[in-house]
């Protein structure tokens, strides 16, 4: 029973990383015999989960922006901030594992976690990509505003198409290519408008592009190394983050951040460490609520929700920081969001078409006597 529940949750989170609908169909087949809740209850669940995903995702971005680039905090240590978030995730995984060993599965279902050097080494390639993803994400956020953050790292979809062809030899339809073209156009228009307003940071743009590339690679490597942890996304999270904590230490030392922390005037502040810990909690929670949103909706709906969330995040950032943006700046954002939505819609139609194609019967030859 425990293995069944664990594989079921692993399947949900693998969909979040791979964008595949096959696992969703398998899950639905396994649940078809159970009684479905009422429409009102399902709608309430979906609204709650989507709202929770929006709240955690948007709050995490604003919180990280405060830690990485707040004039009142004045902490120039992005690698240490990222390291601490990984450290908090490791602690949460270990605490939940210990609690699960003392509680019945009906109260808390979490896999047993222990350190295994062999497994840790097999996860190492993913950990390197994972470090790049979270580091470049945070560095992009450090150098660009929250309002431009979505555009700055908007090329993930484009890299997904490119890497799918280069690594998996998967072709992409013309309509999906057109959607990618709209995203690229919005990306360049956004750079142009940021430059016109005098707020352009080429460092932030480069980090955003690298973050987009690492997000795509992270999905590919995650699918490759999941068997090493028996398909458990929680074990993968534990090993990935503990590897990241170890690998971050020499980079923090070489970058001089230890010296920066030594002279940091708020190092003894409870408020500072509270905000740092809260950012780690939100970093852990975003993975969980992503899985919940896919479980109660679908991978397609999750992508649409993410696009709408990015739009709301941009508007909130402009209002919160009291910024004034030009019409073309808003146009660049709408192009990125519109292109992302169009790509999601096109891929959804393509998956639906594949699912509706009749599957040839294996025993047709025997029936016809050929």
From TrEMBL:
Pfam families linked: TPT
Phylogenetic classification of the source organism: Eukaryota, Metazoa, Chordata, Craniata, Vertebrata
Membrane topology note: Multi-pass membrane protein
Protein's cellular compartments: Membrane
Regions that span the bilayer: 43-62, 82-102, 123-152, 172-190, 202-221, 241-258, 270-290
Residues covered by the Sugar phosphate transporter domain: 45-343
Name of the protein in question: GDP-fucose transporter 1 isoform X1
InterPro entries, alphabetized: Sugar_P_trans_dom, TPT_transporter
PANTHER family: SOLUTE CARRIER FAMILY 35 (PTHR11132)
Signal peptide feature range: none
Keywords: Membrane, Transmembrane, Transmembrane helix
Gene it is expressed from: SLC35C1
UniProt superkingdom: Eukaryota
